[in-house]
Amino acid sequence: MLFAVIIAIAAVVIIGASAFVLLRDRGDVLVLDDHAPTVLDAPAPADGAIVVDDAPEAVIEDAPTPSFRERLSTARSALGGYLGSVFSGGKISGETWDDLEEALIRADVGVTTSSSIIDAVREQVAEADIEDTAELPALVKAEIVARLDGFDRSLSADTVAAGGEPGPAVWLFVGVNGVGKTTTIGKLAHRETNDGKKLVLAAGDTFRAAAAEQLTMWAERSGVDIVRGAEGADPSSVVFDAVEAAGARHADIVMADTAGRLQTKTNLMEELSKVRRVAEKGVGTVTETLLVIDATTGQNGMSQAQQFAETADVTGVVLTKLDGSAKGGIVIAIHSELGVPVKLVGLGESINDLVDFDATEFVDALFE
Ligand SMILES: Nc1nc2c(ncn2[C@@H]2O[C@H](COP(=O)(O)OP(=O)(O)O)[C@@H](O)[C@H]2O)c(=O)[nH]1
Ligand SMILES: [Mg+2]
């Protein structure tokens, strides 16, 4: 009897252990051995004590598999037929150009960029004596691809050795309130952790206590460390402490959340440049400043984005909520008008709903 119980227990242990190994091999489970998720409370500058609390276990999530194009078409997005109707066949006329311009503008490509695309295509049509609208999709596609080509979409974590020791790379996330900064950091933390990177998150949005709570929940999902400050604390001191903590832990990347709302735009921009300065005061180097833009805000979002792009040294755009927009044309406007590449796209609210932007697949999806 006792023997049977021992056999049963042994069987359970063996099956459990092999299931664990299998899951780990598939990269589905984020169990960081001897590295329990930790919440670090950023010290008030006066006392300097870091409080370390144990956080709950990391959550198990499935790894993403479908391609960017597949993800785009499942998310009810892209240009949703705006362009298809223009190219229904027949002779090219003045109306064709009007229709094409209207389609591009309705798809959020923006007035300036739309007319520049049309001018370029018209020129080619005239030069090659093209008469049929059936030939236009290939030309428009090539024009759009040309506007998306030649940008480096990688996220850099290369840091210059500071005093002989390479310090952490700092990625700043900026953008107006509600665009998806905190969510994007949460998704990206999961991805980079799966990739073997060691991270520290900085809850630099100290405007609302809920913002730090939200980021802490994301940190727990991926089992990464997070540095927080009290509500109303100086965001740059939180980022500074996060960089210090990352340096001490030999972490690769600090992902810093920021507030998107202050009394005035000037205050907001000044605060962001202070955060940036302070992030590089110690061992950290800011290697990415990612501007987060909500695809559903269209041209309105573009004019806000312009202000950030002008003052914040933006290295790339994260375009969120493309799943909720039928107007993927904003991608083209971002490249042409802001001069920075879309590096990542948000296609939902879950942890795996963040994908690398792929220009060719995107343009193909536009014309489906
Ligand atoms: N559908 C969808 N919702 C998103 C996406 N990214 C963020 N959100 C949602 O947008 C809301 C605001 O996001 P949050 O990260 O708090 O924005 P923040 O104020 O810029 O930090 C939340 O409800 C998110 O779940 C996305 O790619 N798709
Ligand atoms: Mg936020």
Describe the protein.
The protein is of the alpha/beta class. Among the domains are: 30 residues; 70 residues, Four Helix Bundle (Hemerythrin (Met), subunit A) (Up-down Bundle); 154 residues, Rossmann fold (3-Layer(aba) Sandwich), CATH 3.40.50.300. The protein contains 12 helices and 12 strands. A hairpin with a 2-residue loop joins strand 3 and strand 4. Helix 2 packs parallel to helix 12, helix 3 packs antiparallel against helix 4 and helix 8 runs parallel beside helix 9. It binds guanosine-5'-diphosphate and magnesium ion. Guanosine-5'-diphosphate binds next to helix 6.
Task: Write a short abstract of this structure.
This protein is α/β, with parallel strands linked by helices and 368 residues long. It contains twelve helices and twelve strands. Residues 16-38 and 42-57 have low confidence and may be disordered.
Number of helices: 12
* Number of separate strands: 12
- Walk across the major sheet and give the strand order: 2-1-7-6-8-5-9-10-11-12
CATH fold annotation of the domain at 161-314:
Rossmann fold
Q: How much beta, percentage-wise? A: 5-15%
Computed Rg: 24 Å
Order of helices and strands: HEEHHHHEEEHEHEHEHEHEHEEH
Question: Could you give a short account of the major beta sheet?
Answer: 10 strands, mixed
Bound molecules: guanosine-5'-diphosphate, magnesium ion
Corresponding CATH architecture of the domain at 161-314: 3-Layer(aba) Sandwich
CATH superfamily of the domain at 161-314: P-loop containing nucleotide triphosphate hydrolases
Low-confidence runs: 16-38, 42-57
Overall shape: it is globular
CATH level 1 name of the domain at 161-314? Alpha Beta
Average residue pLDDT: 81
What oligomeric state best describes the polypeptide chains here?
Answer: single chain
Class from helix and strand fractions = alpha/beta
Specify the helix fraction band: 40-55%
